[in-house]
Write a structure and sequence with these properties.
about 200 residues; alpha+beta; Rieske Iron-sulfur Protein; 2 domains; three-stranded antiparallel beta sheet; elongated
Length: about 200
């Protein structure tokens, strides 16, 4: 009788030990397979597209999201803000955005696919500071001709509400517009361009 109790406990110990060793071994075997399923370092550095819901944005609201480690602004422009775009063209360095970065779908007077929704990388094209959103008209610190836009406090660069740079400031080009597309009227994917139709 004593012999049976000893054998049962040995058997139970060996079964438990083999189960633990087997689980650890399976883990070691699974790691290389699972790590190959991860995106490459190059793909992770490039950044995956970001999906944004703009259904709750109010007129005049600025939404900030991150894409590729950079701030991206989504501005729901008011009808009044859209009217100011043509009013400031004579003061801009590149009003037609010929020297600037934007997808083909945004190479127009409003620099966007839909006139009311403006999307831009929120970094000054001078030295990469983040400009502030200044929607007010003619504030005392920006002058009587200011119609709203973005002001970079680092070196004084100014951009209108389409991210177009004013003449005579340090920034050499307009704010960059990232590639983006609409999935629905209120869902945007930043990081993917609209598919071209033939």
């Amino acid at each position: 009788m004593i012999h049976e109790d000893v054998n049962t406990s040995k058997r139970q110990f060996l079964t438990t030990a083999l189960s633990v060793v087997g689980a650890v071994g399976a883990g070691y075997l699974a790691v290389p397979f699972l790590s190959q399923m991860q995106p490459s370092a190059k793909a992770m550095a490039a950044g995956a597209p970001v999906e944004v819901d703009i259904s709750k944005m109010e007129e005049g609201q600025l939404l900030r999201v991150a894409w590729r480690g950079k701030p991206v602004w989504i501005l729901n422009r008011t009808p009044e803000a859209l009217k100011t775009l043509s009013a400031v063209e004579s003061q801009l360095a590149d009003p037609s955005s010929d020297e600037s970065v934007q997808p083909t779908s945004s190479k127009n007077a409003v620099r966007s696919i839909k006139p009311e929704v403006f999307i831009a990388v929120g970094l000054c094209t001078h030295l990469g500071c983040s400009p502030t959103f200044r929607p007010e008209i003619a504030p005392h610190d920006l002058g009587a001709d200011w119609q709203g836009g973005f002001f970079c406090p680092c070196h004084g660069s100014k951009f209108d509400l389409a991210g177009r740079v004013y003449r005579g400031v340090p920034a050499p080009t307009n704010l960059d517009v990232p590639p983006y597309r609409y999935i629905t009227d209120t869902q945007i994917i930043i990081g993917e361009e609209e598919e071209k139709t033939a």
